[in-house]
Write a structure and sequence with these properties.
Strand content: over 45%
Helix content: under 10%
Radius of gyration: 17 Å
Distance between the termini: 43 Å
Shape: globular
Oligomer: single chain
Length: 187
């Protein structure tokens, strides 16, 4: 789509595709610490198509991703797009404005809610019924799983982990969380 690179399709009752554009960050060479490894910044565009592949809506999501923040995980439910905004590194480098979930109605073009920062990391989240389970943590930072109300964005529960999750998935009535050095199973 123009000069945007295809990011991810999301099949649903409507068609939604997300595109990304990466641009160089010249200031990265002057930064100290882990921030210097991020030599690009990202801009995302969501495009909603109808059954005939006609563009119904186009949303510039750039405002959600200033500087080094990026989108790694997405999910849909009906007209709602859930996505994360994060930086794969120490929260200090992103001025602790990282690791949050956003819910957006892609037909109306409205943001329904967003969680507080440090709720969802690059390692993913899962939608489970009326909830989203996400985790946040990093080296020398507290590690938790959060149960977020899918309709309001309110954090309803949090569970301390020994180390940050690397993977989440649901099988049957159990949630599995793989961390750096152990597995957790929740009913």
């Amino acid at each position: 789509f123009g000069d945007l690179m295809f990011f991810r399709p999301l099949p649903n009752d409507f068609r939604l595709a997300i595109y990304v554009k990466a641009t160089p960050r010249p200031e990265a060479s002057k930064e100290k610490g882990l921030g210097s490894v991020y030599t690009q910044e990202f801009a995302y565009t969501a495009i909603v198509l109808d059954a005939d592949n006609t563009r119904v809506r186009l949303y510039d999501l750039e405002a959600f991703f200033p500087g080094i923040l990026e989108m790694n995980n997405v999910a849909t439910d009906g007209n709602v797009l859930y996505f994360d905004v994060n930086y794969n590194g120490y929260a200090e480098i992103a001025k602790k404005k990282t690791g949050y979930l956003v819910a957006m109605d892609v037909i109306k073009g409205t943001v329904l809610w967003s969680t507080p920062a440090l709720t969802s990391s690059y390692a993913g989240f899962v939608v489970v019924g009326d909830h989203i389970v996400a985790g946040y943590g990093f080296t020398d930072e507290p590690d938790y799983l959060y149960v977020v109300n899918r309709h309001t964005g309110a954090i309803e529960q949090k569970q301390k982990l020994k180390t940050a999750h690397e993977m989440l998935f649901v099988k049957g009535n159990r949630l599995y969380s793989r961390t750096y050095n152990m597995d957790y199973v929740f009913e």
